[in-house]
């Protein structure tokens, strides 16, 4: 299960609303304790997808490197990624699955009419053929 601390949550929802009606994306840092993950810091990133961003996002590798560095600096881990679905439900799409990595948490926020609706988290299996919902609190 994954818990998102209020400060990190505000960054994520704020980014989702600001990017609407395009998809936003970002990286979550925090701590792992057995099966329990706590997001202490969320980094809002630029959607680097070159094309229609209404239903697509791509992280810039430079942002990923910067997040890795930041995690080391703070002594925490990169726990996963977040993105928004403008005017769509919170689900893990085939594209999301294809672009994901095992182990990491993937939080998908549904943003409807520019306002936050609901969020869910998913973890892809090792061969990226399916994603398992993960209990999420925010
Ligand atoms: Zn998606």
- Per CATH, the class reads Alpha Beta
What is the tally of helical segments?
A: 3
Tell me, briefly, the overall form: globular
The number of E-state strands comes to 8
**Rounded average pLDDT:** 97
CATH topology: Cytidine Deaminase, domain 2
Percentage of residues in strands: 35-45%
Low-pLDDT runs of 5+ residues are none
**Under the CATH scheme, which architecture would be assigned?**
3-Layer(aba) Sandwich
Main β-sheet, spatial strand arrangement: 7-6-5-4-2-3-1-8
Descriptive labels:
138 residues, alpha/beta, Cytidine Deaminase, domain 2, eight-stranded mixed sheet, 8 strands, 24% helix, globular, binds zinc ion
Structure, described:
The protein is an alpha/beta fold and 138 residues long. It has one domain: Cytidine Deaminase, domain 2. Helices cover 24% and strands 41% of the residues. The protein has an 8-stranded mixed beta sheet with strand order 7-6-5-4-2-3-1-8. The model has no long low-confidence stretch (mean pLDDT 97). The site of zinc ion has 5 residues, from strand 4.
């Amino acid at each position: 299960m994954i818990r998102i601390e209020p400060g990190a949550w505000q960054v994520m929802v704020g980014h989702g609303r600001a990017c609407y009606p395009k998809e936003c994306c970002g990286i979550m840092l925090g701590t792992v304790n057995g099966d329990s993950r706590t997001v202490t810091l969320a980094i809002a990133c630029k959607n680097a997808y070159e094309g229609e961003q209404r239903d697509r996002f791509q992280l810039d590798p430079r942002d990923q490197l910067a997040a890795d560095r930041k995690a080391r600096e703070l002594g925490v881990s990169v726990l996963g990624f977040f993105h928004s679905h403008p005017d769509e439900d919170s689900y893990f799409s085939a594209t999301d699955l294809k672009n994901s990595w095992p182990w990491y948490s993937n939080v998908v926020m549904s943003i409807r009419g520019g306002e936050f609706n609901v969020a869910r988290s998913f973890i892809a299996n090792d061969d990226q053929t399916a994603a398992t919902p993960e209990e999420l609190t925010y």
